[in-house]
């Protein structure tokens, strides 16, 4: 029986492991950290994108892989768009979502339109964070496979891959070390699924090497996101061309400032879904400055301008309906002290130290834009509830 080694235990690694099993091979999943799996995928709180899905059809949402392709290509821009990769993502997106729902029982029945998308296609469930819903379901089933007498699945935690083994130009296995620094070899085909390097702030690390201008920013990545896989593959003698676009690090527009630790290097992500259901971004004077549903790079750039002009801090304000739609999210953020709840707009105005009439004007104008009575000055065309 063929043996496949999967390095990394996030959603990509877990999906790869299950796919290996579906194709009749044996899989060994190596995870550097212990005790849990999941990676950054656990933190995903907005959803997973797919076009032409059963959930969209049930909700009478007209969408297609081609429209998803066009949106993705436009978001990437001519310089970065790679048709083969975009096609792989978009043409398989519906099948991937159906795989999660049918094979693992993941609830992805709700569909929202988020930034950069021309149609609602971001899927989540009615419960908590979709990232946890997906990863926990895959973890549970893989653990069950490990217990079967066939022993076709094995999960090895606290096992850091330190070297890729080669025979000529072919990778034939790995060397890994455990907590006691013992190095062991494993033979088999290798899938690298170690995620990104958004938490690698070491002086000679990957962020410093490829985007030193971002070193001062905080991160929402877990401390495992240090580019282990990138280091492994670039250590190969024949690694030319294996890694690309290393400078393309996304700066997410919104994260929470914890009042108890405002200077923390690691922040909680303020999910895009918060804006997707109607949250508004406001300058310190209570006015808007951007289409909250724009692509992330555009929203981030506008936020930079506001901060540089001394118009910060920037607040994300949600109305009752928006907060109700994401109640589980908001309850979690409230419990962590990352979000405040106010009884009315008057209390919000007091907290922001702005005149109530000015804040009322902002929200009344936004309602007017949403109803089509006036055109939004920032070009916003998708208006969820406030």
TrEMBL record:
Keywords: Flavoprotein, Oxidoreductase. The keyword Flavoprotein applies. InterPro entries: FAD-dep_OxRdtase_2_FAD-bd, FAD-oxidoreductase_2, FAD/NAD-bd_sf, Succ_DH/fumarate_Rdtase_cat_sf. Coiled coil: none annotated. GO terms for molecular function: oxidoreductase activity. Residues 4-312 form the FAD-dependent oxidoreductase 2 FAD-binding domain. Transmembrane segments: none annotated. This is FAD-dependent oxidoreductase 2 FAD-binding domain-containing protein. It comes from Collybiopsis luxurians FD-317 M1.
